[in-house]
Amino acid sequence: MSTLTAQKTSFAAVLWDYLTTVDHKKIGKLYLYGGAFFFLLGGLEAVIIRIQLIKPENDFISAGLYNEMITMHGTTMIFFAATPLLLGLMNAIMPLQIGARDVAFPFVNALGFWLFLFGGIMLNVSWLTGGAPDAGWTAYAPLSTTSPGHGVDYYVLGLQLSGAGTLMGGINFLVTIVNMRAPGMTFMRMPLFTWTTFITSVLILFAFPALTVGLFLLMFDRMFGSAFFDTALGGNSIIWQHLFWIFGHPEVYVLILPVFGVFSEIFATFSKKRLFGYTAMVFATILIGFLGFMVWAHHMFTVGMGPVTNSIFAIATMAIAVPTGIKIFNWLLTLWGGNITINSAMLWALAFIPSFTIGGMTGVMVASSVADYQYHDTYFVVAHFHYVIVGGVVFGILAACHYWWPIMFKRVLNEKLGKWAFWNFFIGFHMTFFIQHFLGLMGMPRRYWVFLENQGLDLGNLISSVGALFMSIGVIIFLYNAIYCWFKGDPAPQDPWDARTLEWAVDKSVPYYNFKQLPLVRGLDPLWIEKMEGNGKMTPAEPVGDIHMPHGSILPFLMTVGFFIASFGFIYQTVNDIAYIFLFGGMGLALGCMLVRSLKDDHGYHITKEELEKEAD
Amino acid sequence: MKGWMGKFKVLSLLGLVALFLAACGKENLTALDPKGVGAQKSLDLIIIPTVIMSFVFLVVMVLLVLALIKFRKKKGQKDFIPKQVEGNKTLEVVWTTIPIILLIIIAVPTVIYTFDLADDADASDHLNINVTGNQYWWHFDYEGLEIQTSQDVYIPVNSKVYFNMKSSDVIHSFWVPTLSGKLDVNPENENTFFLDAHEEGVYWGKCAEFCGPSHSLMDFKVVVVSQEEFEQWVADMQNFDPETAEPATDAAAQGRELFNENNCLGCHAIGSSAAAIGPNLTNFGERSRLAGIEEMTKEKLVEWIVNPELIKPGNKMTGKYPEVSQDDAALIAEYLLQLSPSEITTEDAGNGIEQ
Ligand SMILES: [Cu+2]
Question: What is the gyration radius of the CA atoms in chain B, in angstroms?
Answer without folding.
Answer: 27
